[in-house]
Amino acid sequence: MALRCVGLLLRNEMGGLASITASRNISTSQVHHKVLENSPNAYLDKSILNRYKKLDIPHDKIQATYLWIDGTGEGIRLKDRVLDSVPKKPSDLPKWQYDGSSTYQATGGNSDTLLIPRAIYRDPFKPGKNDVIVMCDTYQADGKPTPTNHRCDMQEAVDKVLESHEPWFGIEQEYTLLDMDGRPLGWPSSGFPAPQGPYYCGVGADRVVGRDLVEAHGIACLYAGIDFAGTNAEVMPAQWEYQVGPSLGMKVADDLWVSRYILHRIAEDFGVVVTFDPKPVVGQWNGAGAHTNFSTKAMRAENGIEAIKAAIEKLSKQQEKHIRAYDPKEGKDNIRRLVGRLETSSISEFSWGIADRGVSVRIPRGVADAKKGYLEDRRPSSNCDPYSVCNALLRTCLVE
């Protein structure tokens, strides 16, 4: 099946621009072969690892993969340790340290940075049934949170409102699959596919790229214990979305970070790169967001629409604060995406509406009809820190 190429501008993962003007037909098999050529991980024989996974490990030994967020606010780091007992709760796990000077979080002369376990998940990559993934937050040598540790702030807000308001969150995580050259997966090497239109929730080899990877991710997340709600192909080819939640309190943010790690790990096996860049391709292509659904006990109750509108009124007065909280670069990434078109609002103006995807905050049609439910904040970028996003919503709508 051939893909029609058109001349546009491509913004690669490093921020560069390449002018592409050639127009010719390239088969998807040629494209796939090129992807594999440039991806060392895709050439590795996975059956070799599977041979060792079948070995019996002593029953009193488990493997724990500690995850944390690095100093960029976007990168996930990890390392494994072997434990002598099965942890039932995060406090059963030992605290640990790592070299913060290698993760943009400390200097070489005082580099030990503390990991504190906060949430436990089953590990879909290790062979033992008790092996775990451990989501951690990070602390400097003086005991203060690292600058990119936004989890502790969200936890403080949740503790204040959990019992009285029962906040629920659901996040729609969009992302794009790339080849090793930084081009969206399956796109012709010297051009672009046909314009947006047939790809959203599409089916067919000429419309969808990477479904096997996407479905493997969903299965692995369900195994891990993530509140994984579903997935769909998005508006741009090679762009996908999955949903996490709805979950009470802290869980959705922990789940989202762990689900991102699982996605990156599965992509390693396929020899594919995952990007959460909010605008990976310049031009008339949709960007990528992390639309965040938020509700409280009052919003979910009869006539909860009034509580929803009251929250929107509070949000309308804090546009700048939320834009800063909604991407790791305090708006500098999102400014490429929130342009007032392509299903986005303007980054500089707050707006809301019913069933309108071009606003800052949307009330879904079903919510408006039922007069209760939730609101959808459409401003967070795909590379947002969910701790920072959820914390901002909690503090604006419930705490401050």
Q: Would you mind describing this structure in some detail?
A:
It is an enzyme of class 6 (ligase). Pfam families: Gln-synt_C. One of its GO terms (molecular function) is glutamine synthetase activity. With about 400 residues, the protein is α+β, with helices and mostly antiparallel strands. Helices cover about 30% and strands about 25% of the residues. The protein has 11 helices and 17 strands. Strands 10, 11, 12, 13, 14, 15, 16 and 17 form an 8-stranded mixed β-sheet that branches. Strands 6-5-9-8-7 form a 5-stranded mixed β-sheet, covered by helices on one side. Helix 8 crosses helix 11 (about 385-400). It is globular.
